[in-house]
Each structure stands twice: as structure tokens, then as C-alpha cells.
Fold this protein.
Amino acid sequence: MPVIRPTIDILLQLRDLDPAAKAFKLAVLPNPGGPLGSVPAFNVPALSEDDQFLLEDLERKNLAVDDAIKLGKALTERLLPEGTVRSIYQQALTLAGQDDGVRLRLIIQSPDLAQIPWELVYDPHHLGEDKAAYFLALNPQVSIARFEERLSPPPALALKDPTKLAIRPVTSNARVSGQRPLKLEQERKVIEESLANFAVDGVEIEIKPFIEQASWDDLTQALAGKVDLFHFAGHGVLDIRSRDPQTGAPLEAVGQIVLQTSAADPTPHLVPARDLADLLAAAGVRLAVLGACNSGRRDKVSPWNAVAPALLEGGLAAVIAMQYLVQDDAAVAFSKAFYTSLAAGLTIDEAVSAGRRAMTKVASLSPVTNLEWAVPVLYLNSADGVLFPELARRESPTANNIRVQNKMMLELIAKGAEVIGVDVDLKEAVGPLDISSDIQAKEVNGNLTGVKLSFGKPPKPASPPTDPESGAGS
């Protein structure tokens, strides 16, 4: 029976961005019952103008890997600065050992800070090195999740059928002023390629019929029955209620999704995220996936930064949102690895990590580098990251195999190799595996960018080729 991976939470609060002082406040909040200390709020420098230029290159998918590392290190100096905060992070890693996880829970109270891709933060122990493997989000032991304070835990729900996870995909391409139409057929293609005939250790993901060009009535009817997962592809918008009088930055904004008035009428119908949350919670949804994030960055603020927290407040356990446009085949790779891990009973932290690493193996359309793995954002309101306890309590060879891969990556990186991905085929493995004594990363020269291992039975030797003239083997 797979054991739920324990995770140590570090609660990092980011607030009070002051454009004039070019600083914001960072604090480590007390974690009741946790083993770590806290740090009162103190000033941290805001990102520099050069860093802001790098963010623009990232959104345009024109950020070279060396600049990505530079940006990642700048984020580290803000999120895990040297001193007590970094010492707490090191203490968490020490307590976690090799088998437990460490989760950075980001509690972000300034909209401008929320739109920063903190998922690019770099490992603070390797700031003197330049290796793509040292982005924290690619470390299977570390999770970066966004969280809201004072949220009640999501209600305990039981799967209607523990052999199935039902997902309801919904698209809407309402005509939003100032925004170009979305190519939602690509979103449908991603879901169908990812989840067609999908089954893991006896658990099937059932794709409910697509609701396309959805209206509110369509959505209400579609969610009248039991659904475990919800996928929305469409526009999101921010209803900005107030702005900073000096900078014009949003101070209060309500996130909304955009549906159509009806299937025949593409006039936009704005639905507050809280209304959507009530509908999803009533249907039993535990996870929402929000796609097509080119839907509201005119103010350099993603609407999902307002929509996702509202969904958590409404009772969902987790939301996955795409903070930038995501390459189609990278989205397919993420979905396959993510849902495989989820169906195997792993925590959502482990599932997102597996999805990110799967994205690193996809050939990038960008002329400079592949940073698609930084696009997904995890918003979480779950203490242990377990969305489906029924699946976590059962025996899962797939879950065990994924954790073997993770342990291999950690040991290789610890011994000095640069690991971008590990691809392991354990389908025919027999008996327990002791990988610690077999991996000698110190013998690796240069950077290890991929590992593909097979522990299956050796293939039968091929018959010797036959000489076409004599008929004898050569």
C-alpha cells in the first residue's frame, strides 16, 4: 500500500509592495503544529527593471536559458533570501530527508506580486552554479503552491465510483472586446490526446461530453451530476474595483470567467468566480484546471490570480492554472504525467512535479529554450495534498515506480550530476529495487541531461542473419 508522502510546509507571506521604495514585505508565518520557526515581516527589494524585461521575454517565449537562470536567482534572493528564511528552508530539507517533501506555500497579498512567476525560483544552495536542473520546481522533493490565508479546509468527499475520475471539459469563445478569439480546438485536442482510453492501475479517467461555446445554463446543466475534475478553456477577465492612485495598479479586483449568452449568441456573459465555485462545489469537484491564459494580460495581471483563489474559497481543494500560453505538445505531456500521478494516488504536489518534468522532454518551439514547465501554477487548499484519499490508500505499482524515479533524480543531483529528466520503464521489474548502491553519479563527466533506464527482462537474442546465397548464418 503506498504511503502518503509527508510534507513540511513553509508559509511565505508576500505583501505591501511599495513602488516608490521599490520593496515589498516578506514574512515566514507560524505553522501551527509544524517543526519550523517564523520570521516577522521585513523589507525585500522588488525586482529590478532589468528583471522586468526578462519577465517580458519569458511571456514572449524568448528567454534564453542563461537569462532564465539569472531571473531564477533574482527570485530566490527575494523569496528565500540569505539569513533566517534560507536557514528555515534548509532545516525543512534536513527534516524531510530523502523521502518526505517540502512545500513553499506562497501567501501573496499584492496583485503585482501575484503575477510574478515564482515557479522559476532557483535552488539557493547552487546560486554559484548555472544549471537548468537547479530550478526548484524541477526538484521532485520541492513543491511551490499558492495559498490563501484563513481558508476553511475543503469538505471531505467520497468518490461515487473509486475506479473512475470524471472530468467535465468546458470551452467558451465569447467575443471579448480587445481580445482575439481563442483557438479552443487545440485545447480540445490536448484533452483528447492526453486522456483518451486513459487508465492507471484500474482507475479510469472518464471524459464527460465536451460543453462547447458554453452558456451559464449549459454549465449549470452539465454540472448537475457528479463530477470530480473540471477543465475550463476560455477567457478570464478582471473586474477592477479600485486602483492605486499613484501607479494605477489594481488594488481590488474580482476574477470572472467569460461564457456566452447562449450557444447561438456569442455576446459575453461574465460569471464571477465565486458563483462558479458554488456550482463546482455542489457538483463535488475537487480540482479545476484553467487553460487559455492569454485571456487577460493587458494589465500584466493574469485573471486566474483572482479566479483561482475564489475557487479555493468556494470549497475546491486545488486549482491548476496556466500563467502564460502553453505549447500544445507540452500541455499534452503535462496532462498525461499529471493525471497518471493523480490516478495512482500520489499527492497533487507530486503530480504537478511529474507533469513539469514531462514538459522538459518536449521539443520546444521557442528558438532559445524550453521553459514550458514553468507555465503551470498550483493553487492549493489541502493540508496533505491528497485530493482523492480512496486512491491514496490502495496499492499502486505506478505510484511506487514514480517515486523510484524521483529518488533516482535526487540521488543523482546530490552526487553532482545535472539531471533534466529520468525516464524509467519498470513494467516488468521483479522484486525490490535498491537504487542507492547502483547509481554512481561521480563517474558522470559533464552534464547529464537525460536518463532512460529499463529494469525489465532482457530481450531474447535475435537469430543470426542468414547469408542469402548459402543459407548459413553469418
Q: What stands out?
A: The two ends are 51 Å apart (CA to CA). The chain has twelve helices and 17 strands. The first strand starts at residue 7 and ends at 18.
